[in-house]
Amino acid sequence: MPALHEMFLVFDRINDQITSSVGTALGTRQVETVVNVLFSALAIGLFVWKFAGFALRGFDMLDLLTLMMTIFFVYILLTSYKAIFPPILDGGRYVSEVLGRGIANRDGSVSLAEATFRMLLHFDFSAACGVTDCLGSGFLALPGVLVAYVMVLALGIIATLVELWTMWGFQIAYAVGWLTIPFLLFERLSFLFDGWLKFIFGMIVYVIVAKINLALVLLGLEVMFGVGDVADQTVQVHGFFDVIGLLVFMAVGIATLYSTGRFASAIVSSAGGGGIGEMVQKMASTAATVAGAAVALAL
Question: 29-56 b/e with 16+ CB inside 10 Å = b?
Answer without folding.
Answer: eeeeeebeebbeebbeebeeebeeeeee
